[in-house]
Q: What sequence folds into this?
């Protein structure tokens, strides 16, 4: 397979491009005594539990798919 | 304990800041690795211990459980109100925009994955990039997997009572 450097850079950017903005937003909201990002997401998941369950299943499947048997891939 | 909530809120803010700075440092390390790594080695990573993958999956699962604990802790520290199931969810504006952006990103990534599965010789699937990163930098991959799983656990497994 023809692995490329931009591929790895995009992988890192996608993962941390989600995590870091959420953390910065949480610091801002917490410092101003407002509800954190999770509160709004949780409201959404309570209103649409099937969507949340599907997300959890997809997340679990991704983890297993990515990491289990990496030696034989 | 209630009178210590003010102090604990300060601790919470400090931990949030420390986590952000820590993840920013890991981000810098990961980018440096991505720029400097010999990507040609990915094609021949035959000596990888298969146990590494199992450990990484366990780390991610642990991160998910820790997300629940963090959510419970933050709820207690902030004495947060009960989140009720509402027919009409007031999550318009920024959150709807962020969700739409996330789904658009997922669609683009899945589009690439589909293309890559049919042209894997010239464009390896995202899975292979993740597996190569896990095989060559298991510690960095473990930290990233733990952080993502913690966030998901914090969001999807939040205490509702």
A:
């Amino acid at each position: 397979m023809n692995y490329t450097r931009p591929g790895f850079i995009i992988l890192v950017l996608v993962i941390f491009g989600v995590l870091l903005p959420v953390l910065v937003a949480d610091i801002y909201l917490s410092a101003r005594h407002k509800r954190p990002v999770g509160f709004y997401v949780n409201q959404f998941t309570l209103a649409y539990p099937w969507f949340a369950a599907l997300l959890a299943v997809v997340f679990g499947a991704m983890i297993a798919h990515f990491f289990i048997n990496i030696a034989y891939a | 304990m209630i009178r210590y909530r003010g102090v604990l809120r300060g601790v919470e803010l400090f931990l949030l800041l420390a986590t952000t700075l820590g993840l920013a440092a890991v981000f810098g390390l990961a980018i440096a690795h991505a720029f400097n790594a010999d990507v040609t080695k990915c094609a021949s990573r035959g000596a990888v211990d298969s146990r590494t993958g199992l450990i990484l999956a366990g780390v991610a699962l642990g991160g998910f459980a820790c997300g629940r604990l963090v959510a419970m802790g933050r709820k207690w520290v902030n004495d947060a109100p009960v989140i009720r199931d509402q027919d009409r969810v007031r999550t318009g504006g920024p959150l709807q925009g962020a969700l739409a952006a996330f789904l658009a990103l997922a669609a683009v990534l899945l589009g690439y994955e589909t293309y890559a599965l049919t042209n894997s010789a010239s464009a390896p699937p995202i899975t292979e990039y993740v597996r190569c990163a896990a095989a060559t930098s298991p510690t960095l991959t473990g930290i990233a997997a733990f952080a993502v799983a913690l966030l998901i656990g914090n969001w999807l497994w939040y205490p509702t009572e």
